[in-house]
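Could you join me in thinking about how sequence relates to backbone shape in a protein? To get us started, please write out a protein record for me. Would you write everything just below, so we can both look at the same thing?
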Amino acid sequence: MIDSDVLQPDRDNICKAGFTLIEIAVVMVIISIVMLLVLPRLPSSDQENLKISARTLASTLRYIQERAATSQTGYHLIVSPGTDIIKINENGADGSAKDPADTLLQKTVVKEGIIVADVRIPRLGKITDGQLRIDVGVAGVRDFITLHLRSADGQFWTVMAFPSGGKVKAFEGYHEDPP
């Protein structure tokens, strides 16, 4: 006669190894929360700052053109090639320049370490120093404008604003003509 206890293992003594699906999910959620808190605080590279600056400048130019068209108010950018200075002013009723009422337009456009290498406007040529005023009216920018942003390590991004249409594009690298 065979003992039935020998054929059937004791279910209470079986070793349960591994993790449950719920335990794995909880660990993944904790790791995700830590990543969300830590990643924004990590220092970013010059290349990432350059890309962010170019995209911010392009978005700002688009926003100014839309705002000028809807509010019937002109704006202008003061750009100082060779520096990181890009200032946005609102045109007053008397023609004077004033700080824009919109707080979004009062923020710094380019990140630290990024400079405006040069600005190209067909009727003026390539401007590499001094100060330049770029008018943005109800119909958008008057001329085709190319702004070249450069990082400290010599990388470039190009921002192009096209007249009358509000189209603004950002491209990686140094471009004089639209790709």
Remarks:
- The mean pLDDT is 87.
